Every structure is written in C-alpha cells, then in structure tokens.
C-alpha cells in the first residue's frame, strides 16, 4: 500500500465554461432584458403567442426537419447521453420544435394562422469564432397555417425589421431570394448540376460533396474559387414556376408598399433543408453578418406528420444583436429609476429594516441596502459608491419613533419624516 505521504494530491482544477459557451454576467443582464422585452413586445403587438419547447428533442425531429445533409445535423448536433435508449439532442434551432408542437397539440384545429414566438438557447457544435457560439440565443416568430399568402412572408420580414428598429439598428440589409417549390426545384437543380459538373475540378472539397448531398448549397459556398465560379451559374429566379414567380413578386410588392428596402440575393439558399419559396436574411452592411434569417417552409408540417400546411418564420440571433448594440454604443436602455440607499444603525433598526423596505416596495421606491454592514461610515461609503441621490438613515431613535431621516447625498441636507409619509416625500425629491 502506498504511504499516505506519497499519495499524489489531485491537481487543482480551474473550471471554465465549455468551449464556445459563456456566462452572461449580472452586469450584462440589463441589455439582455431589454432585448428580450423588445422581442416580447413586438411579438405581442403582431399577435404572436409565446411557446416554450424543451431544450432536448428527439434527434429524428431535426434529421427529418432540418435535413440529414445539412451541416447543422451532420456536424453540429450535441447528442444527449441519457439512461434511456432514446436518441436525444440539444435543439440546434426552434422551427422544427414549433412544428412538432403544432402537430402534437392539434393546433391545426385553432383559428389559422397560428402565430408563435419563442426565445431561448440553441446549441450548435460549430468552430467558435466572433459571433459564433456553441450555445447561442434566438428569438423566433413562426406563422403556421392559413394560406400560402405572400402577405405573411412580408409581415414576418417586417416583424424582424421592426424588432431591430426598436433597438435603434436601422441599417440592416434585407437580402431575399426564392428557392421555388417541389414543381420548379427539380428542373432547376438539374440545370445547376449540369453547370457545376462541367466545373467539378475547380470546386472545393465540400462543394464536390454538395454535388450529390445538397446541390443548392453550391451557391453559398464561401471559398473564393467557388464564389468566382457561381457568377455564371443559372439562378433560381429565372427558373421559378408561375405560382412561385407570382408569389415572390407579390412579396416584393408588399415590401415596396411598406417602403422596406431589400436586395435580391440570387445566391441566398440558407443552411436548412425545410425552406421553399421565399428565403431571406437580415445582414449588417459592413461585415454581411447575418443577424436574422428565415423563410417559408410549406412542406415541413406535413413532413413531420401533420396535414399539408403552409408556414413562414424568422429567427433572430440575440448574441449578435447585443454585440452590435454594444459595438455601436447604441443608447437603447431607458434610464433606470434611481435607488435610495438605506442605512441602518443599531439592533432595533436592523430588526425593523426588512419591514421598512416593504414600506418602500409598496410605495414603489427602489432601494439599495447593505444590511450586513454595521458601521455608519461603511454604509455611507457604500451609498456613495452606488451613486444614490438619497440616503435613508434609520437608527435606534427613528426605529422607536417610526420615522426615518431622508438625506440628500449631494447637499447633505436632511429631514426626519414619518415612515407612513416617507414614500410620497422621497418620490417628490427623486
Ligand atoms: P439560422 O439562420 O440558422 O435560422 O439562425 C438564425 C439566427 O441565429 C442567425 O441569423 C444568427 O443571427 C443566429 N445564429 C445562428 N447560429 C449562431 C451561432 N452559432 N452563434 C451565434 N448566433 C447564431 C434558423 O435557426 C431558423 N430556424 C430560422 C427560421 C425560423 N426559419 C423559419 N423560421
């Protein structure tokens, strides 16, 4: 047996967040709250009802919904190892889950379209880099059912644009394309393949695979050689069937009616297989970073076991939105209500201090305290540090007389007021 002295001590482990993930610290919460509230208000205004779905879903939902040949499903899913034999994954996106819920809860029997909004973390095992997290947050707006009416495509785009405008981001480019339907897509793909097969040698390795796995994605390859090639590739808008062409034209007309500028992007195809007809992204003009993306998915509800039902939606990346707000130093946060600082001295005052705070709460006065600190000086220092405009001094005498001293921290002027009148008097001073 090894002697206790010789036993190796465990190396100290400094725990960190998993790679590509991060903490959102208290000092950043104000901005996350603002962005989430904006998402909720926009959703509320346009009649989207909140839905919450599990973080974990059956892998097959995304394999079938998002598509087996997509990067998200093939390379980026976080698998959950549980005691059950179920193949579970952490959701990489929110649309498939909304559709599952729509089917599972018989929402096709509700008045159509059903408008859902969600907000929460998504998980993709991507190579971490600026604006790309393995846990990122999305807000999504999905409009399921009703007709495949282009007015809904326009409304979904409008909702995303308005969301950003509320946050003072007014200059995102709306990039738009149509990727047709089951009728016009096969002949277009055939022509696309004909073009690319003749250039196979010049394609990158990934694009060589795309020739069989996912031909549409040949168009949005980021490799320079492939970008140069696609200039002479056939584009989808020239190959849309009449219905798809009419649909796309009508979407553009609605956007024009709304005076929403857009850019046609013939190479926009999106990285998820469920799209048909309109696809779009909202990107920064500088770096062309996508802050939101979406489109129509008229086949997904049926593909996941429901009735043939059209749908359209968008998801907004909150991490990237917040990065942009911070980068541009946008003033989107309303001034917080100033807090008064409560200073308690002595045992009786400390004993009654929690009740005093309740008086302030019912009087809608925000209060900061340092209940654990004893010395008056230490508490005055804390009040200063917090930049409180008013301090409330609560000592033995005041506790006994049910009063409190209200002190103006700037001028040093102070007055004793009864607790019953305290909230009204403070409100006038703030
Ligand atoms: P998506 O384009 O994959 O679409 O993601 C939507 C947004 O989430 C992106 O525009 C981006 O801002 C953000 N995002 C995606 N991946 C990351 C990441 N790794 N790190 C940080 N942000 C990221 C969808 O997910 C579809 N479900 C959108 C949709 C809704 N289509 C129809 N309805």
UniProtKB/TrEMBL annotation:
Keywords, comma-separated and alphabetical: Aminoacyl-tRNA synthetase, ATP-binding, Cytoplasm, Ligase, Nucleotide-binding, Protein biosynthesis
Keyword ATP-binding: yes
Molecular functions (GO terms): ATP binding; histidine-tRNA ligase activity
PANTHER family registered for this protein in UniProt: HISTIDINE--TRNA LIGASE, MITOCHONDRIAL-RELATED (PTHR43707:SF1), HISTIDYL-TRNA SYNTHETASE (PTHR43707)
Every Aminoacyl-transfer RNA synthetases class-II family profile domain range: 35-334
GO CC terms: cytoplasm
Catalysed reaction, written as an equation: tRNA(His) + L-histidine + ATP = L-histidyl-tRNA(His) + AMP + diphosphate + H(+)
Record-linked Gene3D superfamilies: Anticodon-binding domain, Bira Bifunctional Protein, Domain 2
InterPro entries (UniProt xref): aa-tRNA-synth_II, aa-tRNA-synth_II/BPL/LPL, Anticodon-bd, Anticodon-bd_dom_sf, His-tRNA-ligase, HisRS-like_core, HisRS/HisZ
Residues that bind L-histidine: 93-95, 124, 138, 142, 270, 274-275
Family: Belongs to the class-II aminoacyl-tRNA synthetase family.
Name of the protein described by the UniProt record: Histidine--tRNA ligase
GO terms classed as biological process: histidyl-tRNA aminoacylation
Cell location: Cytoplasm
Enzyme Commission code: 6.1.1.21
């Amino acid at each position: 047996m090894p002697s206790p002295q010789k036993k190796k001590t465990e190396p100290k482990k400094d725990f960190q967040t998993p790679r590509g993930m991060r903490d959102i610290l208290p000092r950043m919460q104000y901005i996350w709250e603002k962005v989430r509230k904006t998402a909720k208000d926009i959703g509320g205004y346009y009649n989207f009802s909140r839905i919450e779905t599990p973080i974990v879903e059956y892998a097959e939902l995304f394999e079938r919904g998002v598509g087996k040949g997509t990067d998200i499903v093939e390379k980026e899913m976080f698998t959950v190892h549980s005691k059950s034999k179920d193949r579970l994954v952490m959701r990489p996106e929110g649309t498939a889950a909304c559709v599952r819920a729509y089917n599972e809860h018989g929402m096709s029997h509700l008045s159509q379209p059903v408008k859902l909004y969600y907000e929460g973390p998504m998980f993709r095992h991507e190579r971490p880099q600026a604006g790309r997290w393995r846990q990122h947050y999305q807000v999504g707006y999905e409009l399921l059912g009703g007709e495949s009416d282009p007015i809904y495509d326009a409304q979904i785009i409008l909702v995303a644009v308005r969301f950003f405008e509320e946050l003072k981001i007014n200059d995102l480019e709306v990039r738009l394309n149509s990727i047709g339907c089951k009728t016009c897509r096969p002949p277009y793909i055939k022509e696309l393949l004909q073009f690319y097969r003749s250039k196979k040698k010049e394609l990158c390795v990934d694009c060589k695979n795309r020739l069989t796995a996912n031909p549409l994605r040949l168009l949005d390859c980021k490799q320079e050689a492939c970008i140069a090639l696609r200039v002479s590739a056939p584009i989808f808008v020239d190959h849309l069937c009449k219905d798809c062409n009419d649909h796309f034209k009508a979407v553009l007309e609605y956007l024009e009616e709304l005076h929403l500028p857009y850019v046609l992007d013939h190479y926009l195809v999106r990285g998820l297989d469920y799209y048909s007809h309109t696809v779009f992204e909202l990107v920064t003009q500088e770096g062309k970073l996508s802050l939101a993306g979406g489109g129509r998915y008229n086949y997904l509800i049926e593909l996941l076991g429901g009735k043939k039902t059209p749908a359209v939606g968008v998801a907004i990346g909150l991490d990237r939105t917040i990065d942009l707000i911070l980068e541009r130093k946008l003033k989107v946060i309303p001034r917080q209500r100033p807090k008064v600082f409560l200073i308690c001295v002595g045992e009786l005052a400390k004993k009654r201090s929690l009740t005093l705070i309740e008086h302030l709460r019912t009087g809608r006065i925000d209060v900061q305290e340092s209940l654990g600190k004893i010395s008056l000086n230490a508490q005055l220092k804390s009040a200063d540090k917090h930049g409180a405009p008013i301090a409330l001094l609560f000592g033995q005498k005041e506790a006994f007389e049910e009063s409190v001293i209200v002190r103006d921290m700037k001028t040093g002027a102070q007055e004793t007021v009864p607790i019953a009148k305290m909230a009204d008097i403070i409100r006038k001073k703030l």
